[in-house]
Amino acid sequence: MRLLHTSDWHLGRAFHRVNMLDAQAEFIGHLVATARERAVDAVVVSGDVYDRAVPPLAAVELFDDALHRLAALGVPTVMISGNHDSGRRLGVGAGLIDRAGIHLRTEPSACGTPVVLADAHGDVAFYGLPYLEPALVRDEFGIDKAAHETVLAAAMDRVRADLATRARGTRSVVLAHAFVTGGQASDSERDITVGGVAAVPASVFDGVDYVALGHLHGCQTITGRVRYSGSPLPYSFSEAEHRKSMWLVDLDATGAVTAERVDCPVPRALARIRGTLEGLLADPGLDRHREAWVEATLTDPVRPADPMARLSERFPHTLSLVFDPDRAPGGPDVSYARRLAGRDDQRIAEDFVAHVRGAGPDAYEQAVLREAFDAVRADDTVREVAR
């Protein structure tokens, strides 16, 4: 069976105030054309279809167009909700849409109920694990500790239990939206940390033939059977080195996996350039970035006059301007943002405690801070779903 694995469309999202709707529509056309031309048997979409729980109308219309085109093509599609989606909204009408070959899996309770498709070698069971917010699904899975690894392990227990009841030789595919250990993050993914730990080990998914992951925006291979497709378009300059693509995956009769990357069309290249303003304007080696979207980091010790206007004359698509003066490390002029760079909320809070009273928090106080941050994140998620 041949699968086309994609995720993280983020329909409705902009790139530094640049409307990406046309680029997203071009990607949908590319997806449909690839499914047709490469004789794909099923499309799998591993979450973050939309960029927010209540997407703009234009994004909803594009999603509707994508569903109609895939259904008209006759290619079954299995899709889960991600942490940016509202599972309840995305899953409206799922029972009816099933009849058109579009299978929306947005309910945690249905993790162990697969979509079963068949090819010449028998059945392939597709299990959809939507994004599982630990604090919201702990009761569903009957667990005490609200952690990503715990809830995913419980969901996978249901998958393996169902698979054990199926005919010998049934192959299996799991769609999941999670941060798996070994994956490389970028700046454009929303933090899903709970209990100070976001990543889960790939071993959680043992026992199935292929795991189609979503959440991280870079296409990457965790193991031969566990892969991220990444987002089809860039959504931050941290993705400047990404090659945007989808996975074309073949499952043979035994469940062995072979995978090929299929490149996605992107509207412009991304470039991150760094130096003094005069240096950036004069360097002939930067000519290749003239048509790229540019993030310029200026290292001038004193902020120069009209930097954006001057940069835009040479690089018309400059979107981001960052000031990072070359100064001695730890000096008094180091920006607050630089002092906080690379620190998560927990570390910032602990450092603040140490600054105020001269000693950092003890183990009990660290646990109290962690619980407070988890409660805030869970509350934010509840409000987002309620919207």
TrEMBL record:
This protein's UniProt keywords: DNA recombination, DNA replication, Endonuclease, Exonuclease, Hydrolase, Nuclease
| Family as reported in the entry's similarity comment | Belongs to the SbcD family.
Task: Give the protein name, as stated in the record.
Answer: Nuclease SbcCD subunit D
Annotated Calcineurin-like phosphoesterase domain residues: 1-218
Q: How does it assemble?
A: Heterodimer of SbcC and SbcD.
Give the species this sequence originates from: Streptomyces naganishii JCM 4654
Gene name of this polypeptide: sbcD
Q: Which domain of life is it from?
A: Bacteria
**Which GO molecular function entries does the Swiss-Prot or TrEMBL record give?**
3'-5' exonuclease activity; endonuclease activity
CDD domains in the cross-refs: MPP_Mre11_N
Domain spans labelled Nuclease SbcCD subunit D C-terminal: 267-355
